[in-house]
Structures are given as C-alpha cells and as structure tokens.
Amino acid sequence: IVRNATVIKSCLHRFCDKCLNECLRSGIKECPSCRAVIGPKRSSLRRDETFDKLVATIYPDLERYEAAEDERIASANTPKRLHHDGNPMSPSGKRAKATAQVGVQNVREYDYWGMSKASAAITQQLSLVFIFFVHMWQGVKEGMLFSATLSILSPVLRTLTESYAVDTIWALSVALTGIHLITHDYTYINGTTYKYVLVPCPTCTSRYAGTISLNAAIFTSVLLASLLHSNEQVFSFVLFAIEVFAVSPIAQHNIKVQTPLRARYG
C-alpha cells in the first residue's frame, strides 16, 4: 500500500515517497512505470495528501493489515508438508494426499518373465513377416530371371522358322501335339502314387515322368510363336504355353492328391 503518496507531474504516476527517494538517490532519473524523465525534485514531484486520506479511510488499521499481509506472504513462500504428526490435516493437505493416492493406483507393476512371455508373440509375428518376405523375394527373383531370359530370346524365337513354309510349321505342330497327348503322364496328374493307393505298384511314381510330352508341347509352342509378328506376342505366347504345359500338371497333381484326404478326414 502506498504511503506518503508522491506524484510525478510529467506522467501522474503515484509512488511511495520513501521508495521514490531511494530510486533518485541511486541515480535512477526515470519513472519506474513509464520511463518518463524526472526533472528536478521540487519542480517534478508533489505530495498527494488526498490519496493518503483515501488510504486511511479504507484501511483504518494499516499497521495491523500490513503485518497480516507480510505473515501471509511468508507462509505462502514456506514449503509445506502434506500433514503434521498428531495434527489434523488441512483441506489442501487432504487434496494433495488424495491426488497422491490416485497416482499410486494408476501405476501398474510388471513382472520381467511375464513381459518376456508377452513379447514372444510379437517376436514370433515379426519372424513370420520376415520369413514371408524372404521366400516371396526368392520367388520374385526366380520369376524375374526367367522372364528376362524369355524376353531376350523372344527376337530369336520370332525369326527361328523364317526359312520354313507355313504348311510345314503347321504339320510339325500337329504331329508334336499328338506326341504330347500320347506320351503325357496321366498317372502323375491323377495322383495315383505309392502314398495314395491301397496296393503299391512298380509303375506308380510321385514325380512327373512326361519329359517327352513336355518337350513336344514346348517345341509346338515355339513353332507357333514364330508365326507371330512382334516380340511381345512371342513372349506372351511362350510364357502362357510354359504355364499350361509345365506348371499346370503340378497344380492338377496337388489338387487330386489333397482332395481325397480332405473328403475322408474333413
């Protein structure tokens, strides 16, 4: 509370007379609020007795009020414990204790071995993902290598039979197709191997034995591909022939082998 109020005439800011005199003695010639320059003391400052009377009216016991304010400020700056031994806790102490208890309840304890067992599922899933991508990348590399080789050979295959007549090419294709149908390994496709027949026979095999049939089919596809007009058509036709004559027997064999087992035990 301002005591013995003194007004700076240039800016009309009001301060304690004691505080303002200390500032002037320390060499500060500016208003503490607006930094206005303070001239000579007698011409720049004046006492404000009206403000002193107003303070006295509002605070009749000014000394006691200031002592209580000083005690309150000192107690606020002193760190407090949550509660004192043997004394009832204040409302603020109760609130602090309740907050601490809620914080302890929100803390969850973990066991090392329990965390290790729980992390095993994450490690297993990561391993499965890595294995999947490794095997997929191997298949992609093999497919890219095969496709690149066939793409390089496509111009050669397109011009392979330029010196032959079209009738000769068609006659060879028909003859080789007949050889393919005659020598094809139908036993392998039906899945009648040692593992899936009741009485094993020496003629049953679990490996594809139609080598002559496969070579005849591929040779037929090469002859017919040479009649096409672009490298892209040759590449697509030969690739489709390889899928039909070389890959599809394996798929048919697996379907015939797995279907009876699922019907029997499913």
From TrEMBL:
Q: Tell me how this protein sits in the membrane.
A: Multi-pass membrane protein
The protein depicted here goes by the name Zinc finger C3HC4 RING-type domain-containing protein
Tell me the domain of life: Eukaryota
The Zinc finger C3HC4 RING-type domain covers 6-34
Keywords of the record: GPI-anchor biosynthesis, Membrane, Metal-binding, Transmembrane, Transmembrane helix, Zinc, Zinc-finger
Which Gene3D superfamilies does its entry note?
Zinc/RING finger domain, C3HC4 (zinc finger) (3.30.40.10)
Kindly list the organism's lineage.
Eukaryota, Sar, Stramenopiles, Oomycota, Saprolegniomycetes
Q: Does the keyword Transport apply?
A: no
Q: Where is this region: Disordered?
A: 76-96
Give start-end of the signal peptide. Answer: none
One of the GO biological process terms: GPI anchor biosynthetic process
Q: What GO CC annotations are associated with the protein?
A: glycosylphosphatidylinositol-N-acetylglucosaminyltransferase (GPI-GnT) complex
Location in the cell = Membrane
- Spell out the family assignment given in the record's similarity comment: Belongs to the PIGC family.
Q: Which GO terms describe its molecular function?
A: zinc ion binding
What pathway does the annotation place this protein in? Answer: Glycolipid biosynthesis; glycosylphosphatidylinositol-anchor biosynthesis
